[in-house]
TrEMBL record:
3-hydroxyacyl-CoA dehydrogenase NAD binding domain location: 294-470
Pfam families linked: 3HCDH, 3HCDH_N, ECH_1
PANTHER family from the UniProt entry: 3-HYDROXYACYL-COA DEHYROGENASE, PEROXISOMAL BIFUNCTIONAL ENZYME
GO biological process: fatty acid beta-oxidation
Domain of life according to the entry: Bacteria
Cited PROSITE patterns: ENOYL_COA_HYDRATASE
Keyword rRNA processing on entry: no
Primary location class: other
Species assigned in the record: Salinisphaera orenii MK-B5
Family in the record: In the N-terminal section; belongs to the enoyl-CoA hydratase/isomerase family. Belongs to the enoyl-CoA hydratase/isomerase family.
Reactions it catalyzes: a (3S)-3-hydroxyacyl-CoA + NAD(+) = a 3-oxoacyl-CoA + NADH + H(+)
Protein name as catalogued: 3-hydroxyacyl-CoA dehydrogenase
Subunit structure: Monomer.
Keywords annotated in UniProt: Fatty acid metabolism, Isomerase, Lipid degradation, Lipid metabolism, Lyase, Multifunctional enzyme, NAD, Oxidoreductase, Peroxisome
């Protein structure tokens, strides 16, 4: 008898129930248990039909991802599903929760599919750098045609029961008690002598001869660099060209290739890392949380408005405060405009737009914030201004209200000291555009209470963000590492590379854009103003004037002015090399007496990325990031580090820390620059032959 799969008969129907919490993943014991339970069901003469279902919260949500990378153990899932399909009895899948991956593939091995109206099904393997490897790429196209199967398999998004019924995947949608419904349905099918329906015996509907090449083209840009989506297409194509057995063999080959690829290892790392970042040592399930029913936001600029949208979209009322009515009106209008643009793209209904807008109120008076549970300040990045705001907030907000700052660089501890309740103060650093970017750096101050941390981490999820808890330092985790990379990018150009060459290397690595296109997007004026400020206030320590300052002085501020490091044609965001920039770089090199040299792409990649890894190691040592995976997630969700590279720290592990360290040491020997001083943690791990993942 299996611990994780049971067989019992009720009302002439045999029930095979998977009970392997939390998500009924199809690990070895479940696969063996399924076969044993099937044998029992087949031998049970009293059972007229068999139902497969999951106990607890869901139908199996897929293969056990933790088993990937280990030696595979028989029986393999494709064989289990083939056995189910070949069994002599009528087989019905009864789905609730999320039947994903191998779970959905089990349902495709059944004759009939019944689902609760709240259930969802899908083949999300592509998100793990894989393809459905238990017959999914062969059975789904047979059931719904090649085009729809491509959408489901390459898209990887779960679909609702109602939609699946329309597509012909689900035969019946029910509500209420799934077990009772499943037994009734199975009895009815048995009474009606319903035919067996082996999906593997259907023929595939291929809509056109170019369906696969068209599909490849349509995803070429969006899936640039990824292996799995293109393997998924090949597997579905095999379903249209080969018989089922040969197609399944081809699916297996493609699946194995992906499983053994560095990309899938990276994507699986990201899957677990994304869940791990939510777990904060010292914060338990029973750590008290505060209720957040209403939020105040200070500042109705682009950032404040973007932040507000997260809460409105999640159904949480927002009060937005500004100093002047005009700024407030502008902010509210911008939020509406953004929502309406989303509605125009069909991603929201006009009722939803109105519902979100109805949750927004605005005010010019701090006193109106006396009843909010959380305030997020998104004003000008200046300590004096922030302190004044927090002083006001301390005065007006109720006891227990959480006071958050969206600062990206300033000291959260100092801000907290301007209140009488530093334990209620925390950083919530949103990334621009704040309504889109998934990352939220939650910054723990020295005094921030566990209760406040727990509440804000939970809230991050509630508003659809991935919250990463970090400590206080200049730039926190993301921007501190970014600054080091930007400095290398500039040095590389000073020494002989072109901005376009540097950008191309990082783009080809998989980043959405290179450092200079990113600077143009953010605006060259931002950094320039900060440097100018320093030159005025602290000339001795201020950075030297360089060619980026020269560009900013000419009001070449980037995309918004039609030119920055690159030129931009009107209405086109494609960066084009600029003669003005080239001349300024030449001038700078001449002034500095720099003799240029040929710079290889390898050097660009190593210098831009290894400096990030070194800084990451320093951040870990200082405790600013709790774990390497926190840094990986910050970079994936905040800066578009390619998921298939796993994040900077995972990537460094995959290169080998001894190699990374040796190169960093070499750069330090050559330049003597502090940024290249190997982090002691990196040095130690490299010596011990360990990885960041071993910490
Ligand atoms: C596959 O099926 C391949 C086949 O085609 C071919 C095979 C030959 N395995 O996300 P949550 C853990 S590939 C192992 O926080 P939620 C998760 O780590 C698979 N563990 O809950 C977490 O653990 P912990 C295709 C898994 O309610 C806990 O369960 N399937 C798996 O927010 C709770 O998870 C997928 O890709 C797994 N398959 O969301 C589905 N799934 O508590 C992946 C979850 O220690 N899973 N865990 O942190 C999901 O998308 C979500 O977990 C799900 C629940 C929607 C199910």
């Amino acid at each position: 008898m299996s611990d994780v799969v049971s067989y019992q008969r009720e009302d002439e129907i045999g029930l095979i129930v998977v009970d392997n919490p939390p998500v009924n993943a199809l690990g070895h014991a479940v696969r063996q248990g399924l076969l044993d339970a099937l044998d029992q069901g087949l031998a049970d003469d009293g059972a007229r039909a068999l139902v497969v279902m999951g106990a607890g919260r869901t139908f199996p949500a897929g293969a056990d991802i933790r088993e990937f990378g280990q030696t595979p153990k028989e029986p393999a899932l494709p064989d289990v599903i083939n056995r189910l399909e070949d069994s002599g009895k009528l087989l019905i899948a009864a789905v609730h929760g999320t039947a994903l991956g191998g779970g959905m593939e089990i349902t495709l091995g059944c004759d009939y599919r019944l689902a609760l109206d709240s259930a969802r099904m899908g083949l999300p393997e592509v998100n793990l750098g894989l393809l459905p490897g238990a017959g999914g790429t062969q059975r789904l196209p047979r059931l719904i045609g090649a085009q729809a199967a491509l959408d489901a398999i390459v898209g990887g998004k779960p679909m609702k029961a109602g939609q699946l019924e329309k597509m012909g995947v689900v035969d019946k949608v029910v509500s209420g008690d799934l077990k009772a419904e499943a037994i009734a349905y199975a009895r009815q099918l048995a009474d009606d002598n319903a035919p067996r329906r082996k999906v593997s015996e259907l023929t595939v509907d291929k809509e056109s001869d170019t369906v696969f090449s068209d599909y490849e083209q349509s995803i070429a840009r969006k899936k640039r660099g990824f292996l799995a989506p293109f393997h998924c297409i090949k597997a579905v194509q095999a379903a249209t060209e080969l018989d089922f057995a040969a197609g399944q063999k081809r699916e297996r080959e493609l699946f194995t290739e992906l499983l053994n690829s560095p990309q899938s290892a990276a994507q699986r790392h990201v899957f677990f890392a994304e869940r791990e970042v939510g777990k904060v040592p010292g914060i338990a399930k029973d750590t008290p949380r505060r209720e957040i029913a209403q939020v105040g936001i200070i500042g109705a600029g682009t950032m404040g408005g973007g932040i507000a949208m997260n809460f409105l979209s999640a159904g949480i009322p927002v009060k937005m405060l500004e100093m002047k009515q005009e700024a407030l009106d502008k902010g509210v209008a911008l939020i509406r405009k953004n929502y309406e643009a989303t509605a125009k793209k069909g991603r929201m209904t006009s009722e939803q737009v109105e519902r979100c807008m109805s949750l927004l109120t605005s005010t010019l008076s701090y006193d109106d914030l006396s009843d909010v549970d959380l305030v997020i300040e998104a004003v000008f990045e200046n300590m004096k201004v922030k302190k004044e705001v927090f002083g006001e907030l301390d005065r007006v907000t109720k006891p227990g209200a959480i006071l958050a700052t969206n600062t990206s660089t300033l000291d959260v501890n100092e801000i907290a000291q301007s209140t009488r309740r530093p334990e209620d103060v925390i950083g919530m650093h949103f990334f621009s555009p704040a309504n889109v970017m998934k990352l939220l750096e939650n910054v723990r101050g020295e005094a921030t209470s566990d209760e406040v941390i727990a509440t804000v981490m939970d809230l991050s999820k509630r508003i659809g963000k991935v919250g990463v808890l970090v400590g206080v330092c200049y730039g926190f985790v993301g921007n501190r590492i970014l600054h080091k990379r930007q400095a290398q990018a500039i040095s590389l150009v000073n020494e002989g590379a072109t901005p376009a060459q540097v950008d191309k290397v990082l783009y080809d690595f998989g980043l959405p854009m290179g450092p200079f296109a990113m600077a143009d997007l953010a605006g060259l004026d931002v950094g320039w103003r900060i440097r100018e400020g320093l030159r005025e206030s602290d000339p001795a320590n201020a950075p030297e004037r360089n060619w980026l300052d020269a560009l900013a002085e000419q009001e070449r501020w980037g995309q918004k002015t039609g030119g920055g490091v690159f030129d931009y044609a009107e209405g086109d965001r494609t960066p084009r090399p600029s003669e003005v920039t080239a001349a300024e770089i030449e001038k700078y090199r001449a002034e500095q007496g720099i003799e240029t040299r040929e710079i290889s792409d390898t050097e660009i990649l190593e210098r831009c990325l290894y400096v990030m890894v070194n800084e990451g190691a320093k951040i870990l040592e200082e405790g600013v990031a709790m774990r390497p995976l926190d840094i990986d997630i910050v970079w994936i969700y905040g800066y578009g580090f390619p998921v298939y590279q796993g994040g900077p720290m995972f990537w460094a592990d995959s290169i080998g820390l001894d190699k990374v360290h040796a190169k960093i040491q070499q750069f330090h020997d050559e330049t003597g620059h502090d940024d290249w001083k190997p982090a002691p943690l990196l040095e130690r791990l490299a010596k011990e032959g360990k990885r960041f993942a071993d910490l």
